[in-house]
Design goal:
98 residues; two-stranded parallel sheet; globular
Length: 98
């Protein structure tokens, strides 16, 4: 049993947040592919972790850069970006009540 299975078996409502660090390397790709889309949250961790493709323009991250997280999740899951964006928005609403 890997870590994802272990956590999700004990904590059935668990969510995993991902920052733009996922645009810089692939060490979390398998985890993102294993999780249900309903278990994923997108974050920026501003002002840290500028997305790789935007790091030449800015050294500080901001909330608008969350798009890069959504885009990366969509690419890894082979899903349309709008489907991923809608589900991650719904996940945030569920967790944060917004």
């Amino acid at each position: 049993m890997d870590d994802v299975e272990l956590f999700t078996s004990y904590f059935t409502e668990i969510k995993f947040g991902f920052t733009p660090i996922i645009t810089r390397n692939n060490f979390l790709d398998t985890t993102i592919q294993q999780l249900e889309l309903t278990q994923i949250l997108s974050e920026t961790d501003s002002p840290y972790f500028t997305p790789e493709e935007l790091s030449i323009f800015s050294r500080c991250a901001h909330p608008g850069m969350v798009y890069s997280v959504v885009e990366t999740v969509a690419q890894l899951r082979h899903l349309p970006i709008m489907d991923v964006a809608c589900q991650l928005r719904e996940n945030a609403r569920h967790i944060y009540g917004v």
